[in-house]
Amino acid sequence: MAIGFIIALVVMAAVVLYLFQARRWHGPFINFLIVVLIIALIFSLVFVYLQTPVDFSSPQGFMKFTQAYFSWWGSLVKNTGGIVGYAVNQNWGVNNTAPTE
Question: Between the CA of residue 41 and those of 4, 63, 84, 89, 100, what are the distances in Å?
Fold first, then answer.
């Protein structure tokens, strides 16, 4: 478990260093998008970890977590597509039942 914590710290330090250097390469909007994507990735990993009982001490446990994680993303994309499709198919025209004077 300690090695995972060290790896996570090294990755976070690399991201912070990249963001400080990235100001020279591109604007603040791209940096904002990178930070949002990293935060979304972290929250999604934690959410799936808390919902899925896994054992990271074996390769099978890691594979189970990976399958659950990508299955969760697939369900998220499928449900988002369903919601967007439902909204697109709604009648968004003018409401003709409003009283006129």
Answer: 17, 18, 22, 31, 52
Instruction: Identify the DSSP state of 89.
Output: T
Residues 37 and 1 in one domain: yes
Q: How far is CA 96 from CA 86, 89, 91, 92, 93, in A?
A: 22, 19, 12, 12, 9
pLDDT in tens, 43-69: 888 888 888 888 778 888 888 888 888
In a shared domain, residues 84 and 64: yes
pLDDT in tens, 10-25: 877 787 777 777 667 6
Report the sign of the C-alpha dihedral through residues 58, 64, 70, 76, in that order. Answer: negative
Token pair 């935060």 in the structure block, residue = 39
SS3 98: coil
Residue 1 lies in a domain: yes
